[in-house]
Design brief:
heterodimer, A: alpha+beta, 20% strand, B: 328 residues
Chain lengths: 604, 328
């Protein structure tokens, strides 16, 4: 990988002419034509190929460097503070999960950890996990029900409660990123020498596959027991203080320092720079790692990623795509890339705390109908990804079971001005098209449209909205949000219309509970509809996933009609890797392309 | 001079306290880290988590009390909590300071030596082709946006690597995450290879302004009576240049350089971002965008100390370069 000394001598001679070269070298130039050598990832966008594209047998050896876009400061991904995408990726390599989200948004059972999972009863809902007899931590300790018990007890919000108000150092208690599901568990018990885990739910939970994994892997309970002085193998009787000690140990300690269970082990972590993984000789899973070395390198400025890829300093990048960036990658020889449609989706939100917006559903419907999403896509992400389409659902994206286009049939996002005006005239608004007034004579607007400063795409989105709504006689001013102020603007309701993005989880019911239910953590615009609340609550407790999806769609039908949030499109995701490697795939879920690092390797 | 130095240092203490207090007020009102915490995560954190976070970053304390706790904490080596979990601000600050100093030191030295050489040469050959060429490049480098120049340099670096079939020049970071063979020579060339491009970037920008200073002040000095007298006395040209003219001409440059070092230390933001050196520049950007009060303050405090320090150095340099100046 490094300079050979003969090349170096040659290089030093050339260095003299370096400044002269500057003028001549016009960025790019490498003698490759687009389409050249893009066989690997190109098929990923095709129907049904997401989980299998770019696959192939691997040979031993090679170093693969993959980019992390943020430093990792906190290693407990189950903790609110440590719940970052980068942390999820870095831990996914070494810690086991029961189910792993796949590129096609389904979840796959990790058979290296559990041979089978079954729901043996629905009342009470009972789940039985059979742990793979070979599954063990790399210090030789077998993975048992005790690890599950520890996971449950630290995440249920009861056995390890949040730190008390008097504790400003947060050294007492656990703050899990979400207690969803774990707070419904009645008991977790081991049998069969700890190799069978039986989970009995107090209340049914539809997203039960999200438990013990799905981006939030298991941590070794015996490590926590040992350091907190608890009895080995007895997580069921750990005190809150003991649980906290383990929780905090995993916050502060990179997994290079404790036993893990993955095809790789983390050899070292250099803060703010990189993690190095090497194959774990004690791994007993079905698939052995073939790369000699896997490196996750921190590069916080996405625009530098293509250059590093071209210079062979990294071999795989996963940045947020933009026109320039995609074009730059296209010109790099021997690199294959794919643009996928992610779980993150862009949307306009109305602030229902605004008295006029909150009062008139007809006004909101009319506004959403006047907006042309086609225009928005064409002038933003459509420039590098022709596949982007209007998103028609608030809970599901295309490809997820349960996705139904509920928005487009209503005409919202169509830019249909006639229809938009009809909503207003029917509701007895005056001044339609010139200076809109409510039926009781109050002026509508001017509204502000807010976006995070520096985000060109969102600025364009506000501009298009501005001209679309001008047609209805609504004045919109565009008001950027300072880089650090999005949170203040959202929680302080300092907006009329705002554009930002949400990440849909592979498990939609918990997301719906956050964003749409009255008082939900992500419900910044103050939406409240009792029917929606009831339907979502019912969906969360539904053990049949098909029925749960149906309930969510019923709730969504009401939400579309209430015109609170207008989904625009799924944000594209972008993976580029060198063609000499195989088995890297674009995974737009919360685990990212790192979902299958054990299979990554040099092409045979 | 010692008394003068001590007095200067003592005077700077109230300056530091007042300036940091004003900045502290600005920073704590610049945004709401608690709201950021509450909205930047999915799923949204629980109310208990938000409350715990607010207590952790002391967002619940009144401003004056917060400032007092901070400044007394710093005196005891406690830099306060960061909004980033598990981040030790003091450790972060000095690690980054080291990184930036590494980056800046080489660049400054190169820029200074080249600036003096080219500036003097340019002045001596005023209105010659060489002077025009140096002037042209001086203004070119001054006018060039740093980010653009840096990216161009990276492209040139890649071209160089491709031509030589090596990986000598690095575009990211201080060193490679991993070296095929772990010899001293390899590690050394790897470090150098990563230093080349950012050093050139930083050096050229300072070089551009410093040659202009050297040229102007050299021209002025060469025109002065005492230089003419020295020449008339029949002293050798080289002796006149170095002992009489250059020494005087360096005085304004010394001031400019000393003050610039402080600015460059804090202002290598663009270079550090583009070359992914995790130094002071990145720290400032990160702390500002995340409303990280104590981390911003740590940055400001260190920068203020550096600025005050180099101001003092500039004044002391005067005395060294110009024997007429005496401090007491």
């Amino acid at each position: 990988m490094r300079a050979r000394s003969s090349a170096l001598t040659k290089g030093l001679v050339l260095a003299a002419g370096l400044t002269l070269v500057l003028g001549a070298c016009s960025g790019g130039g490498g003698g490759s034509s687009p389409g050249n050598g893009h066989a690997g990832l190109t098929s990923c966008a095709e129907q049904g190929q997401a989980n299998t594209c770019n696959s192939g047998p691997t040979k031993a050896g090679g170093t693969f460097t993959y980019v992390l876009e943020k430093n990792i400061q906190q290693w407990n991904v189950q903790d609110t503070n440590g719940n970052t995408f980068e942390n999820g990726e870095a831990l996914q390599v070494v810690l086991p999960s029961v189910f792993v989200p796949q590129p096609d948004f389904t979840v796959k059972l990790n058979t290296d950890l559990v041979s089978s999972v079954s729901q043996t009863s629905t009342s009470p809902q009972t789940l039985v996990y059979k742990i793979n007899p070979k599954a063990s931590w790399n210090d030789g300790t077998p993975i048992t029900a005790d690890d599950f018990v520890y996971y449950w007890r630290t995440n249920n919000g009861k056995d390890c409660p949040p730190p008390p108000a008097s504790d400003s150092t947060q050294t007492k208690g656990c703050l899990p990123q979400s207690t969803a599901g774990y707070d419904r568990v009645k008991s977790v018990t081991g049998s069969d020498g700890g190799r069978t885990v039986t989970v009995v739910m107090a209340k049914p939970y539809s997203d039960w596959k999200s438990l013990f994994g799905a981006g939030y892997p298991l941590y070794p309970a015996h490590v926590a027991e040992k350091l907190s002085g608890a009895k080995q193998g007895d997580a069921a009787h750990m005190t809150a203080a003991q649980l906290t000690q383990g929780w905090q140990y995993f916050q502060k300690t990179p997994p290079s320092k404790y036993p893990t269970a993955g095809p790789y082990k983390m050899q070292s972590w250099v803060d703010n720079d990189h993690a190095t993984y090497v194959p774990d000789p004690r791994w007993r899973g079905a698939h052995k790692a073939t790369l000699q070395r896997l490196i996750f390198k921190v590069i916080t400025d996405a625009t530098q990623e293509p250059i590093a890829l071209r210079n062979n300093e990294v071999q795989g990048i996963y940045p947020q795509p933009e026109v320039d960036l995609v074009n730059q990658v296209k010109s790099i020889p021997n690199v294959t890339y794919t643009i996928g449609n992610g779980l993150t989706w862009e949307h306009f939100d109305l602030n229902l705390h605004n008295p006029v917006l909150g009062k008139y559903a007809a006004l909101r419907r009319s506004m959403f109908t006047a907006i042309s999403i086609k225009d928005i896509v064409a002038k933003t992400v459509g420039q590098f990804d022709p596949e982007v389409k209007q998103l028609g659902n608030h809970n599901f994206v295309p490809g997820q079971a349960g996705y139904k286009d509920l928005v487009t049939p209503t005409g919202q996002g169509s830019g249909d001005l006639t229809k938009a005006k009809k909503y207003l005239t029917d509701a007895k608004f005056t001044g339609v098209g010139s200076a809109l007034r409510t039926p009781d004579g109050k002026a509508v607007g001017p509204f502000n449209c807010r976006y995070t400063t520096g985000n060109q795409i969102r600025q364009s989105e506000c501009q298009i909205l501005q001209s679309d709504l001008a047609n209805l006689g609504i004045k919109v001013t565009i008001k950027p949000i300072g880089a650090a102020d999005l949170g203040t603007v959202l929680t302080g309701h300092q907006y009329d219309i705002i554009v930002f993005a949400w990440v849909a989880a592979p498990f939609p019911t918990s997301g719906a509970q956050q964003n749409w239910v009255t008082g939900g953590g992500g419900n910044y615009g103050g939406y409240s509809n009792k029917k929606v609340d009831a339907l979502v609550a019912q969906a969360v407790g539904e053990t049949d996933p098909a029925k749960a999806a149906q309930l969510l769609d019923q709730a969504d039908q009401i939400m579309v009609d209430d015109a609170y949030v207008l989904p625009l499109y799924q944000k594209p995701t972008f993976l580029a890797v060198q063609t000499r490697f195989v088995n890297m795939r674009n995974n737009s879920t919360n685990v990212g392309p790192a979902y299958n690092t054990g299979e990554w390797g040099l092409k045979k | 001079m010692l008394a003068y130095t001590v007095r200067r240092i003592l005077v700077s203490i109230p300056v530091l306290i007042i300036s940091t207090f004003i900045v502290f007020l600005v920073v704590i009102n610049a945004g709401d880290p608690v709201a950021n915490f509450a909205t930047s995560r999915q799923p949204a954190p629980s109310k208990a988590a938000v409350a715990a976070f607010a207590r952790h970053v002391h967002a619940d304390q009144p401003a004056v009390e917060r400032y007092w706790n901070w400044i007394t904490g710093v005196l005891h080596g406690d830099w306060g909590p960061s909004v980033q979990p598990n981040l030790d601000i003091g450790h972060d600050l000095f690690t980054r300071f080291r990184v930036t100093v590494t980056l800046v030191a080489a660049a400054m030295l190169i820029a200074l030596v080249l600036a003096v050489l080219f500036g003097v040469f340019s002045a001596l050959r005023q209105y010659s082709a060489a002077d025009y060429t140096i002037t042209f490049f001086g203004f070119l480098f001054l006018a060039m946006p740093v980010f653009w120049f840096a990216v161009l340099l990276k492209q040139a670096g890649i071209w160089f690597n491709e031509q030589t079939g090596s990986q000598f020049l690095g575009t990211i970071g201080e060193k490679s995450p991993y070296l095929e063979s772990d010899t001293f020579w390899n590690a050394f060339t790897d470090r150098i290879g990563h230093l080349v491009l950012p050093t050139i970037t930083l050096a050229l920008v300072s070089f551009a302004s410093w040659t202009r200073y050297t040229r102007a002040s050299m021209l002025e000095v060469m025109d002065s009576d005492y230089v003419r007298l020295a020449r008339a006395k029949g002293l050798r040209r080289g002796r006149v240049l170095v002992r009489h003219a250059l020494r005087t001409a360096l005085i304004p440059l010394a001031t400019v350089t000393a003050l610039d070092i402080a600015i460059i230390l804090g202002g290598a933001v663009v270079t550090e971002t583009i070359f992914q050196w995790h130094g002071m520049g990145e720290m400032l950007v990160q702390s500002a965008t995340t409303v990280d009060v104590y981390r911003t303050m740590a940055w400001l405090l260190l920068s203020a100390v550096v600025v005050i320090g180099f101001n003092l150095v500039a004044d002391l340099l005067y005395a060294v370069l110009d024997p007429r100046i005496r401090y007491d």
